[in-house]
Design a protein that fits this description.
The complex is a heterodimer of chains A (505) and B (500). Chain A is α+β, with helices and mostly antiparallel strands and 505 residues long. Chain A has helices spanning 9-14, 70-82, 184-200, 243-264, 312-322, 326-337, 341-349, 352-365, 368-386, 397-408, 414-427, 431-438, 445-458, 460-467, 475-484, 490-501, and strands spanning 20-31, 90-91, 94-97, 107-110, 120-124, 134-145, 149-151, 162-164, 171-177, 213-225, 228-231, 235-240, 274-279, 284-287, 300-301, 308-309.
């Protein structure tokens, strides 16, 4: 960066958006889905009475010692593999020292220089084409313990602060990206894509309301002023509590930094990294209290824990458990099941449960097209309306597959099929029982012939139109036919009518 | 009538005399045989504590009621024919830096004046599982930082051989109570010499096991990579007996070794023929008092007469031991003691904002030496100094380890004095911390290398005991105990007792 030349206020004012490149890197804290905490046996359940999920270890009592939860390490490796990271064969634990009332030991056990996951990447794209598909590099991902939760009296009346140590010691994987994102939209896409992978491989529920996924962003601008590249000071934005908040906060910060630079001309040179918080109500980023000096965490290796050695065999075994990742799954659905890109996307975005449901239904009825239509229109609509998950849907994939198989085989038409589905859901019965209940049966040929004759006799106008060559006019008879006999199949009916009128083909 | 009372009294006195003279192994076998009850034995030590400890201050807390209650239960179980543990009825004193469930545990700090742990340290659990009786909690230098017990927030312990002298430290209370017959066995911890040096000063046997041999769970940490729990006893045989109970892998301590636990008693009676004793030339360089040098020479002669051979070895980096030790130990301590912040179980100095509360609590709650070491460690870990101090000290530690590996190619154990002097007077080193730090000069290197070491009585200088140190190979405590036991079969230094 060349800052020797002062840029005049007028030149700064003249800069347009086209000359500004946004640089964004993210730090994502993911709470791993383990039953117990990282270094003790306490439960990680959310929402329990304060300080009921604690023990001498996670409250930092004198004489207590940490013992590693191997499941947390396994989930970290699984995440690293899904993000194409190098997995460290040898990793260790370091103490990050700082005083805070919700940090009982006065240090956090973390990983400084030997993170469990090294360099990796995640490919992102946008279906609406908001940006070109791109690769975001992961710098590292390390495992650490969470701190507790402080609540302060915000009234200004000096009430007591409260501390809940239930969360203390919960395993967190901190994923750090390189500054590869060039817009808030890219950052949001990264977060969405990351969340999908993490939920697919079942390492985290990524529930942002419960703090299972927390995100901080580092952002600044590179501004081109007549060939001279100027960088604005780096700002870290905290408290971005949803993907929407992240996108809006970063978008806001782009505007704020540009405006600030236009006003002050301040650049990255000699400017310490500042921390801003996103205020979701006011829709602004607010500078947080400046620290008088840079924090010195006095990291050193934790002598209470031994180094962790991971073998290739262990890594391979974990790799086996990952299964197909979302991007690969999308391709498979398009290639092997002939879904449209759009349908594949919708399905994959619903999570692995819905994809598995679809695959099972498609296999049973041997009709991917029918299966995706029914999953989209019936199943997902129901899940949306009832705000429920796929495993709560009353009809299992076998039952749905059986129903759709009957439609594929021509035993039912889709309209009757929907009646059958309703009956199945209402009475918790299978397709056969529902068909029986609705009195659905095959219409035999003599019955069909007499029905057709009845229709032709009653509709001379239609007969005339057909004889003039407008075969499509027969469609008007389907509704009448079904009123007389709801079991009649529209296709068979029309074919028979054509035969009787001698307009085959 | 009168004569029968006198007769009874003399019997009681005789009994009392006998218990004082018994080793732990003898107490255990007498109780097992029904010749002595756990209750009488415990009561005897409680009486002795009441009689002598107001002068010595070796105990911070005497668990009178629970000890008697436990003793009575053990006697009842024995009468009912139940099988009892390996240490059934044996009173054991535990350093107050080791957590005891329901018994106040202070680490001799004002900071933890009212801390009652909700759990037992693993070794306390193991002792009670073996039916030993926790008789009390012994004094120490605050958070085990010191070599004289003068840093206790609750008053110094006095040396039973001369109450003008320190008992050594940091486990001074544990050493003094065994030296004064106020407990047959006590438990201490050794970070840089805190078992061996006070054992030497008080004329008792003290063993620091290999790092990882005994679980640290429940030991209030001073320096986690150096701390190790071990026993004080009258004899090496008693140390073996105790080690058989407190040693072994522990799921709650990640640094606890998965080595098999041998029967430490099994090798005691083996001959020393063929045992190679390394004499470290650096331990005999100028400055070592003549009396200590002389008793070392005499001890070597005794061991040679038992069939051992000697070989001169060198530990060339041991001269950097003290420096490396104080950097590493203080660095770890600065982190380990951060939890004492006034927020939870510690004392709190109320103030109108958080930083003031932290500052005042830690200023009031910690003594001078603890604050000095926290500052030293904080400094050594600070950005810009870390490489010059912590990293360099860690490299020295590696070199010292390598010295030992090389030395043990030509010998089985290394012999030398435990400390460069006998017990010094109160106040002698308090004004100059550096001279105090040198009390650990012969012991710290074993901690840095994680190796076992034992101190046994081997003579006197001006009426004060001299300690002989043997350092061994990793997880080879059995050989140290064997040599110590054989030595104690030939000498009576360990049986000598201070005047009451």
């Amino acid at each position: 960066m060349n800052t020797n030349t002062q840029i005049s206020a007028a030149d700064r004012e003249a800069v347009t958006a086209a000359e500004v490149t946004t640089i964004i890197g993210l730090e994502v804290h993911v709470q791993l889905q383990t039953k117990s905490k990282l270094f003790c046996g306490c439960s990680t359940l959310f929402g329990q009475e304060p300080n009921t999920q604690t023990c001498p270890v996670c409250t930092g009592m004198p004489g207590s010692l940490p013992v590693l939860n191997k499941q947390a390490l396994k989930l970290s490796i699984k995440t690293g593999l899904a993000l194409n990271c190098e997995i460290a064969k040898h990793t260790k634990w370091d103490r990050k020292n700082y005083f805070y009332p919700d940090l009982p030991k006065g240090y956090q056990i973390s990983q400084l220089d030997q993170p469990i996951c090294g360099v990796g990447y995640l490919d992102i794209s946008d279906s609406d084409g908001a940006f070109e598909p791109k690769r975001v590099e992961i710098e590292r991902a390390h495992l650490e313990e969470d701190a507790g939760k402080s609540s302060h009296d915000e009234s200004g009346r000096g009430g007591k602060s409260k501390i809940d140590l239930n969360r203390t010691g919960t395993p967190l994987l901190e994923i750090v990206t390189r500054p590869d994102m060039r817009s808030a939209a890219e950052a949001k896409a990264f977060l969405q894509s990351l969340k999908m992978i993490l939920t697919y491989i079942e390492v985290s529920d990524c529930n942002m309301q419960e703090g299972s996924l927390r995100c901080d962003g580092n952002i600044n601008l590179h501004i081109n002023v007549g060939g001279q590249k100027i960088a604005t000071p780096i700002v870290e934005i905290k408290n971005m509590n949803s993907f929407r908040a992240a996108e809006r906060a970063l978008d806001y910060e782009v505007k704020r930094q540009l405006a600030e630079w236009k006003e002050t001309g301040g650049t990255i040179e000699g400017a310490p990294k500042r921390t801003f918080g996103w205020d979701d109500q006011a829709e602004v980023t607010i500078a947080q209290r400046e620290k008088e000096e840079a924090a010195d965490y006095r990291y050193f290796p934790d002598p209470d824990l031994i180094a962790v050695v991971t073998t290739d065999e262990q890594i391979d075994a974990i790799r086996e458990e990952i299964g197909t990742l979302p991007s690969r799954l999308r391709n498979d659905l398009v290639r092997e099941h002939q879904l449209s890109e759009y349908d594949a996307n919708v399905l994959v975005n619903q999570g692995r449960g819905v994809v598995d449901y679809f695959l099972s239904v498609a296999k049973t009825c041997d009709n991917s097209k029918l299966a995706i239509n029914w999953v989209n229109q019936e199943v997902l609509r129901h899940l949306n309306e009832t705000n429920s998950a796929i495993d709560q849907y009353p009809i299992g994939s076998d039952g749905m597959g059986d129903l759709l198989k009957r439609i594929t085989d021509g035993d039912l038409d889709q309209t009757r099929g929907k009646d059958v589905l309703s009956a199945m859901m209402e009475d918790s019965i299978d397709a056969a029982a529902a068909i029986e209940k609705l009195g659905i049966r095959q219409v035999d040929s003599s019955e069909l012939d007499s029905l057709c004759q009845q229709l032709l006799d009653a509709n001379p106008k239609v007969v005339a139109q057909v004889q003039e060559g407008k075969v499509k006019a027969l469609g008007a008879l389907v509704g009448q036919a079904r009123k007389i006999n709801p079991n009649v199949n529209p296709g068979t009916l029309q074919a028979n009518l054509r035969k009787m009128l001698g307009v085959d083909g | 009538m009168a004569s029968s009372i006198e007769c009874l009294l003399s019997l009681v006195n005789q009994n009392k005399m006998e218990i004082s003279k018994l080793s732990a192994s003898q107490i255990v076998s007498h109780i097992a045989a029904g010749e002595l009850t756990a209750t009488d034995c415990t009561q005897h030590f409680l009486n002795e504590i009441e009689r002598k400890d107001p002068t010595l201050n070796s105990y911070l807390h005497v668990a009178k009621e629970s000890a008697i209650e436990t003793a009575q239960q053990i006697d009842a179980r024995r009468s009912a024919g139940e099988s009892l543990g390996a240490l059934a009825g044996l009173p054991v004193a535990v350093k107050d830096g080791i957590c005891t469930k329901g018994i106040r545990t202070t680490a001799a700090s004002k900071m933890l004046e009212n801390f009652v742990p909700p759990f037992d340290a693993t070794i306390v659990q193991k002792l009670t599982d073996a039916d030993a009786i926790v008789i009390g909690k012994t004094n120490l230098d605050e958070f085990a930082m010191g070599s004289s017990t003068e840093n206790s927030a609750f008053g110094a312990t006095k040396n039973p051989w001369n109450t003008d002298c320190v008992p050594g430290g940091s486990s001074g209370g544990s050493a003094a109570c065994v030296g004064a017959d106020l407990a047959p066995v006590s438990i201490g911890s050794d970070t840089g010499g805190s078992i061996r040096q006070p054992a030497a000063f008080c004329g008792v046997t003290g063993l620091k096991p290999t790092y990882g041999r005994v679980s640290r769970f429940g030991l209030i940490a001073f320096a986690s990579s150096l701390d190790q729990i071990g026993p004080f006893t009258r004899t090496a045989q008693d140390a073996a007996l105790t080690m058989n109970v407190i040693g072994g892998h522990c799921e709650r301590d990640s640094t606890s070794a998965r080595e098999d636990l041998p029967d430490f008693s099994s090798k005691l009676d083996q001959s020393l023929s063929g045992v190679r004793i390394g004499i470290c030339k650096e331990h005999f360089e100028s400055g070592l008092p003549d009396d200590i040098r002389k008793s070392m020479d005499e001890s070597i002669s005794v061991l040679k007469s038992l069939g051992a051979t000697t070989v001169e070895i060198s530990l060339p980096h041991s001269k950097y031991g003290i420096a490396a030790y104080y950097v590493i130990a203080s660095s770890e301590a600065s982190g380990n003691l951060a939890r004492y912040d006034g927020v939870r179980y510690t004392m709190r100095f109320e103030a109108d904002n958080l930083n003031k509360m932290y500052g005042l609590t830690r200023t009031e709650g910690f003594g001078d030496e603890v604050r000095r070491r926290i500052m030293l460690g904080t400094y050594a870990l600070s950005s810009g100094y870390y490489d010059a101090y912590y990293v360099k000290a860690s490299k020295v530690r590696r070199l010292i380890k390598n010295d030992y590996t090389k030395a043990f190619e030509s010998c089985d154990v290394i012999l030398g004095p435990t400390a460069p002097s006998t017990a010094f007077k109160f106040g002698e080193h308090t004004t100059d911390p550096l001279t105090m730090y040198l009390a650990d000069i012969f012991t710290v290197t074993a901690n840095l290398a994680g190796l076992p070491g034992i101190s046994i009585p081997c003579g006197f200088s001006d009426g004060m005991p001299i300690g002989l140190q043997l350092q061994g190979k990793s997880f080879d405590e059995a050989t140290l105990l064997q040599i110590a036991h054989q030595f104690q079969q030939q000498t009576d230094w360990h049986s000598r007792r201070p005047q009451a």
